[in-house]
Design brief:
alpha/beta; Purple Acid Phosphatase, chain A, domain 2; 35% helix; 27% strand; globular
Length: 397
């Protein structure tokens, strides 16, 4: 109404100044002016709505975390020989076909070896690896490394300290082993979601008494429910949104979790742990969702080896060549963080020999078979990839 009165007023003034204009249809002009004015208002409203929509999308993006997690990174003797070059040791080829970790908001792996303190490198039974193995993990996009496993103490306290120092020197975090009594979980915020992260092992290969009950008992996290409870309370005190743990547990080469794993997972659920990534059995085991008292815990009982020299040629079975990469998508909502995705992806380790040297590539099985990731040796390994996928499907039906 105000706009209409303004337009009529302008025409009255024009008539007074210039006299009546017979050829002008005042009503038509008034109608067009009102339509133009209305269109501008609607356009501005749409632009405001679009801007708000973009802001909401950005808010959602910043409150969403995509995790990729892997199992045991090992360096057996043949791997060390294969990685040795004149200018040092190179492990980057392991990750050649795995862009996922760089694309993740949070990438994690279990480092089942130690970094050498003296430049001497050994494989099984007491692992000691070149620093470049950690560098390769960093180059491939990882953020957090679990170091609590049965080989954590292979080179004593010096090995633990050297491994921690090396991981931190490459800008990554470690969980599960510690240099001092400040052995609380890692608190890490990613895209507005705050994580509490820790790792625990069932044993350190007969060296347990060198750590437990000593003045350096803080050095290794064992699967001790009193310690885990204390760590969960620390996470709660720091208002974390997600409690995530690596558990080094189970029986080697068993395709099913045992009762001890299942019972421990239930206890972790009762304590409020949200996500469990399992390692140690060297073969893949199932995933599950445990729910008790309205609390859900997402667990993968074993992601198996990420890379190793455990091959079908001299192992009792082929299953140690298979492994998992876990993908988890979390979204923060007004009602808390929800798990939108908890999915296992099959991987397989390709070992081959050229020019007198052993090479190891970790292959994403589905992506290699469907061609979405181009693998140079696809024709040579296709049947083994199909077999690996069949093994995966037998567990993940």
């Amino acid at each position: 109404m105000i706009f209409k009165n303004i337009v009529l007023g302008l025409f009255c003034i024009a008539n007074l100044l210039f006299g009546p204009t017979k050829d002008i249809d005042v009503n038509n002009i008034l109608k067009e002016s009102i339509n133009t004015f209305t269109y501008k208002i609607e356009l501005e409203a749409r632009e405001d709505a679009l801007e708000k929509y973009r802001a909401e999308l950005e808010k959602l993006r910043k409150s969403r975390v995509r995790i990729f997690a892997a199992g045991d990174f090992m360096t057996h003797g043949p791997q060390l020989k294969g990685a040795k070059y004149n200018d040092g040791y190179k492990f980057d080829e392991y990750f050649k076909y795995l862009p996922f970790f760089k694309e993740a908001d949070l990438a994690m792996i279990n480092y089942e070896t130690t970094v050498s303190c003296n430049g001497q490198y050994t494989g099984y039974p007491t692992f000691s690896s070149p620093e470049s193995s950690v560098e390769a993990i960093k180059n491939s996009g990882f953020d957090v490394i679990a170091t609590a496993n049965n080989h954590a103490f292979d080179k004593g306290f010096k090995g633990i300290d050297k491994t921690i120092d090396t991981i931190k020197s490459y800008g990554m975090d470690n969980v599960g082993t510690y240099k001092d009594a400040n052995n609380m979980p890692l608190i890490k915020e990613v895209n507005g979601i705050k994580f509490g992260i820790s790792a625990y092992t069932y044993s350190i290969n007969g060296f347990d008494s060198h750590v437990k009950g000593t003045d350096k008992a803080y050095a290794v996290n064992f699967i001790d429910m009193d310690k885990i409870k204390k760590d969960v309370e620390y996470m709660d005190a720091n208002d974390v949104d997600v409690k995530l743990v690596y558990m080094h547990w189970g029986v080697e080469y068993q395709l099913k979790p045992n009762k001890a794993q299942e019972n421990t997972a239930k206890k972790l659920n009762e304590l409020g742990v949200d996500i469990i990534f399992g390692s140690h059995p060297h073969v893949i085991q199932k995933c599950d969702v445990i729910e008790s008292g309205g609390k859900k815990t997402y667990v993968c009982y074993s992601m198996a080896n990420f890379v190793s020299n455990q091959r079908r040629e001299f192992m009792p079975n082929r299953y140690s060549e298979n492994e998992l990469m876990m993908e988890v998508i979390l979204q923060k909502t007004p009602n808390g963080v929800v798990v939108e995705k908890f999915e296992a992806h099959p991987l397989w380790v390709d070992k081959y020999r050229t020019n007198g040297r052993d090479h190891y590539n970790v292959i994403p099985v589905r992506e290699a078979l469907d061609g979405s990731i181009k693998v140079e040796r696809i024709n040579q390994i296709k049947n083994k990839l199909l077999q690996s996928l069949e093994d995966f499907n037998s567990i993940y039906k």
